[in-house]
Description:
CATH topology of the largest domain: Rossmann fold
Mean pLDDT: 88
Shape: globular
Largest sheet: 7 strands, parallel
Helix content: 25-40%
Number of helices: 25
Radius of gyration: 31 Å
CATH class of the largest domain: Alpha Beta
Strand order of the largest sheet: 15-16-14-17-18-13-19
CATH superfamily of the largest domain: P-loop containing nucleotide triphosphate hydrolases
CATH architecture of the largest domain: 3-Layer(aba) Sandwich
Strand content: 15-25%
Structural class: alpha/beta
Amino acid sequence: MTKFVDVLLPLPFNKGFTYFLKAEDEERVRWGCRVVVPFGKSKSYTGIVINIHSKSDTDYKLKEVIAILDESSIILPRQYEFWRWIADYYLCNIGDVLKAALPSGLKVESETIVELNENYLPDSSFSPVEQKILDLLGKEKNISIIQLQKDSGIKNLLPTVKSLIECGAVFISEQLRSAYKPKNELRVRFKDTVDEARLKEIFNLLARAPKQLALLMKYVELSGVMNRTAVSPVSKSDLLHAANATSSALKELVDKNIFEIYFEEVGRLNATVEATSDVFELNDYQQQAYKEIKDSYKEKNVCLLHGVTSSGKTEIYIHLIEDEINKGKQVLYLLPEIALTTQITHRLKRIFGSRLGIYHSKFPDNERVEIWKKQLSGQPYDIILGVRSSIFLPFQHLGLVIVDEEHETTYKQQDPAPRYHARNAAIVLASLYDAKTLLGTATPSIESWYNTQTEKYALVSLEHRYRDIKLPQILPIDMKDKRKRKQVNGLFSFELIDHIRQALDRNEQVILFQNRRGFAPMLMCHTCGWVPKCKNCDVSLTYHRKLNQLTCHYCGYAVQVPKICPACESTELLNYGFGTEKIEDEVQQLFPATHVARMDLDTTRSRNAYEKIIADFEGGKINVLIGTQIISKGLDFDNVSVVGILDADSILNYPDFRSYERAFQLMSQVAGRSGRKGKQGLVVIQTRDIKHSIIKQVIDYDYKGMAQAQLSERQQFNYPPFCHLIYIYVKHRDERQVELLANAMAIKLKKVFGERIIGPDLPPVGRIQSLYIRRIVLKIELSASLSKAREILQHAKEEVTNDSNFKSFIIYYDVDPM
């Protein structure tokens, strides 16, 4: 009987597609293994087998599985169940979840190859762009579309390739490509089995070849071939280096049939067993919090550890991790930013050594594939330290999930789908394994705090800093008053300059915070008021002085800074506002002998950039560190005594119901970088609204007051956590069309949801990447059935997108938006 498989593809579909198997593949196929299948006219994709059966009642012509890539499953049943939950809860397709979850190296896909037609005789001249492509193909003969675009530097390549296909100059084909390439190593071994007698014979043979003899003796030493039953593999490069020998000496031994050289696949992961040390003892406050957490798990599965900055939450995490791995369980330790992994890695490696695995997007894809495979092996990592994508890894014995800095918005995935929140998803993941979850932060999210007040989560408080160091003194500066009195130098009040100078004179360090990168957020003509805007998005371009560029931070569009205004030809182009680049410039002018560094998206694009900046700051090579919100996320520096928040108002005045909560969290977290190991630190907050309630609450470290005020306001206006919030986005290139569809969608939804629907309205940025955007807001009562609401929303989307007039529209849902 013919076997069929349902295959889940990394495409925006919410179901698997049925394929039939070759007879020889029927016994090899397994649930959860990867297969390569054709899809569409000519493309091939890697999918996951999610069902094996003998029925073929489909309404489309079945195609054959091209290849089976695995002998066993590469996903686990509970992992797949978790993916299905993400797709259902966050209103996206399971294919989107698969695409996000699997590292690229596990996806063999077809790619379009452009090939030169060598028999083509041109009957007309080519354009310069067409000729450039033909010249490149003349060197390589065939190149992938992606590589051709990279080599040519032509952004919109497809129309040019299409014209060359139409005239017969080139043709295209599809080839399967695997992104993962195993790492192989050249190794050396004896050609034949060697005993003691044979070894003496070889020594005698090489008596007159001292270099070859030395190489042989070094091999015997490194491999342990004569004194151990298990022979250690010896790499060619290690052998030549240890023996201080040349390749020619090794070649002679190969030619004499003494040695042979062979390839061996080796992992990229560090398999070295490292020396570890015992965990530190907890102080009395930490010990009490640790005991309360353990006790809370007898009744509740989720616990919130509310610990002030520098209270030693990480040490408590380490003790809890040790408990779990002693029970044979695995731990997932989530962080909000890649920047944090550097410091935490060193602390965890010291205790757990090679039992720790690290997983994030800055790692090469080949390494991510090998971590995935290791997690499926008989010796998986006991601890995975990573950012939000780590929740998709396979876990065999998950016992604890730690979500550090649980309040951070970077746990929410924005684009593309699935638009999941890693904190909330991690709690569900833990529940599937009957594991526990620990949320840790000094400034909990309002939702998590509310869950403790309603006793859904347990709450443990840690109110004392490590070694009882006082919380930093917070000094507010009224910038409106200071500017009137001319007590300001550029971006800095005289007080902040004095405190920075005093800290530097004491060989202490300073952190300056501004949540905006670039030199200035806006350029404006002083004569006519012209402002350069992005051609793709409804935003002004940010001025980056070092690059002499105006850049869009939404789509990446960039242009050179104009010398004259294109509207009135004035040369008076002034920059307004300031970002981290401008702060760096002014600090360098104020303190020329000071070593200054900047930590933002522009300076940390490479894998090692974070590590270098953090290591230099820890090592005292940097005196003043300027940064965006990256520097607020739990970094631990011993010698920082002064922190400056240069523009508190820009955080407070964002049009969002969470703006006050986020402002409190950001300022409190940045303040917490000061005075962590020595004496009490100082935080200077520059603001034009010194009487703002949030400024006062930050100064008083009054989290509970802030949370209570926010909960009261949100209850009054029916915002989370008192309702479920879903944003419905409609996007299209035509503004009039997007308005029509958004209104039609809102009318359709209002028939079902009534006053729960608000809008459509214009979001803060109404056009991004040439797509006009409208947003509809849906508020659903906590008591209402979310699954029923999701069913209605999915049906509404299908109804609208099935209309031929609206095929090209983009409609998607953002559940629990941030």
